Amino acid sequence: HGKENVDSRHSRGRGAETTRFHTLNVAQPVRFSRKCPTGWHHYEGTASCYRVYLNGENYWDAVQTCQRVNGSLATFTADQELRFVLAQEWDLEEKTSVRKDQRRFWVGYQYVITNRNHSLEGHWEVAYKGSSEVFLPPDPIFGTAMSENENVLCGQLQCFHFPTLRHHGLHSWYAENCYEKSSFLCKRSQTCVDIKDNIVDEGYHFTPKGNDPCLSCTCHNGEPEMCVAALCERPQGCQQYRKDPKECCKFTCLDP
Length: 256
What we know:
It holds the Pfam family Lectin_C. This is IDD protein. This protein has three helices and 18 strands. The strands form five sheets. Strands 3, 4, 5, 6, 7, 8, 9, 10 and 11 form a nine-stranded mixed sheet that branches. The protein has a three-stranded antiparallel sheet with strand order 14-15-16, with no helix packed on it. The chain has a two-stranded antiparallel ribbon with strand order 1-2. The chain is mainly β. The chain folds into two domains: 41-92 and 100-189, Mannose-Binding Protein A, Chain A (Roll), CATH 3.10.100; 192-253, no CATH class.
């Protein structure tokens, strides 16, 4: 399997003639390693991609930024999904100096205040109705920038930078003034990503990321399906050559 060169095997055919058999490159099973665009983290449990944007934006601008990349501010369906998000090293993705207070991310929840007597009373709501399985956070810590006139606060998830705390899943929920600027966490469905890191729309043909540039698949629900492989002969008149990792049947001859 996967031979780069043509094997010539001689055997006797009818009439004592020499028959030559050629074994060309054989298609091999391909493992699709990427289901998210560059900079996004994939979680198999929800077939979703996640990305933190470290540039500070208010809640409403963060909503629009997530929508522009076909996503929304993140909500969570199960504790395992939240633990996956907490375990990631988001700060390492962009080379920027991040203050500790910027490790709080806007997420897709809002806290509706129903009573302002001796203590604030209210309840969490999902900002954008999606899955009915979304869980709601516990009682929040109230932010310092709250206004007495605001009846709706926006949800922030605080992640801890230190590895020990991060891997134990420790975190906090804040209800903050929606016009404060903060980093934010976007979530989108997994998608098809081609060999050149382009996002592929549903139903289109593409070559998935992997080690076979001669594979053509159809994008279905973020997965490559109905794949067809092309087989290439080695370049003629060239003993040593290198295959192009991103172009099908393209070779560079290395002969002197």
